[in-house]
């Protein structure tokens, strides 16, 4: 399962409308996933508007930069996961 699918599955199951970057990073503890791979998956979900940055929380200083907290747009999540 690729990192994008792992995050999508988690977002479908989570009950809160907001999710922190820390929560998403915790999904990959103990797995061979680089920051770049993780960030690419998160940025893809941002581009698809499945998750949206919570402006008041800001962004990380790492490159590529990710938001510290995201608002989950559950209505944009599709049931079919590749």
Task: Give the CA-based shape.
Answer: globular
Count of beta strands: 3
CA-atom Rg in angstroms: 12 Å
Beta content comes to 5-15%
Structural category is alpha+beta
Helix content: 25-40%
Poorly predicted spans: none
Summarize the biggest pleated sheet.
3 strands, antiparallel
Distance between the termini: 9 Å
Q: How do the helices and strands follow one another from N- to C-terminus?
A: HEHHEE
Give short descriptive properties of this protein:
single chain; 82 residues; alpha+beta; three-stranded antiparallel sheet; 3 helices; 37% helix
Describe the secondary-structure layout:
Elements (H helix, E strand, L loop, with lengths): L2 H11 L4 E3 H6 L8 H13 L3 E3 L15 E4 L10
Antiparallel strand pairs: 1-3, 2-3
Helix pairs in contact: 1-3
Q: What can you tell me about this protein's structure?
A:
The chain is 37% helix and 12% strand. The protein contains three helices and three strands. A three-stranded antiparallel β-sheet has the order 1-3-2. The longest helix is centred in the middle third of the chain and has 13 residues, at 35-47. The chain is globular.
Short summary:
With 82 residues, this protein is an alpha+beta fold.
